[in-house]
Amino acid sequence: MLECNRFIIKAAQLGNKDAVQIVYDMYEKQIWSIVRKFSNYFSTPELREEAFAEGCEVFAKAIKKYDWKKGNNFSTYLERAITNHFIRFVQKKQKEIITISMDEYLYINQKGDKNLSLEDVIGEEEQGVSKVELKDAITRALNKLDDKERDLTISYFLNGTPQTILCKKYNVSNATISRWLDRIRVKLQRELAVFANS
User: Fold this and answer.
1) What is the three-state SS of 25-90?
2) Cα angle 192, 148, 103; round to 5
3) Does residue 146 sit within a domain?
């Protein structure tokens, strides 16, 4: 990649709009490239667009803070700034805990004819396992999934969203959605098996 002339960067830092546009045009592809590196977390076109917009905000801050005297190329500095921003975002998302209310309704079929709460599904305490312990195990299992898997689990298994709608949402084939759901099912079964054997 051609490195941006430090005089153009300086002009951009001083507020010259033409210089800012020149710098942006040179590094737009790099911003998209960094967004693609985080495609597991920005899995839909909408999420990628939002991530790109955030990358552009970081780009604007990077122009203001960049100091060529420190010896870094602007592209290296920009890459580090945007990557660090996305890493902090991912770490924050991973710390968020999904909680399930015991009286939250779960849709049993795609028509939504039969609504049951988690409490109805768990039922009475059996074999020394409390509802709270089982709820915690389900919550832990869901938290082991990435954002896309969690969204699919809630959409498909809990809300009964048809696969055809999920195909459109993620812009993938029905076969791909089926594979994703199968992987999710295996992960959840593995996590819940650990709970059952403890």
Assistant:
1) HHHHHHHHHHHHHCCCCCCCHHHHHHHHHHHHHHHHHHHHHCCHHHCCCHHHHHHHHHHHHHHHHH
2) 55
3) yes
Among 95, 122, 150, residue at a domain's last position: 95
3-state helix, strand, coil in the chain (%, to 5): 70, 5, 25
Structure tokens at 60: 């604007």
Length of the chain: 198
Total domains, the chain: 2
3-state secondary structure of 21: helix
- Pick the closest to residue 108 from 140, 145, 156 (CA basis): 156
b/e map 126-150, b = 16+ CB within 10 Å? eeeeeeeebbebbeebbeebbbbbb
Q: Which two tokens stand for residue 2?
A: 């051609």
pLDDT at 125 (0 to 100): 45
Torsion angle of C-alpha atoms 74, 78, 81, 82, degrees rounded to 10: 180
Residue range of the domain that includes 110 = 105-197
Whole-number average pLDDT of the chain: 77
Contact 27, 75 (CB under 8 A): yes
Domain's final residue, options 33, 68, 95: 95
Q: What is the CATH number of the domain that holds 26?
A: 1.10.1740
| Distance of alpha carbon 110 from alpha carbon 5, whole angstroms | 58
Contact predicate 180/151, CB 8 Å: no
User: Per residue in 94-103, pLDDT tens?
Assistant: 555 455 555 5
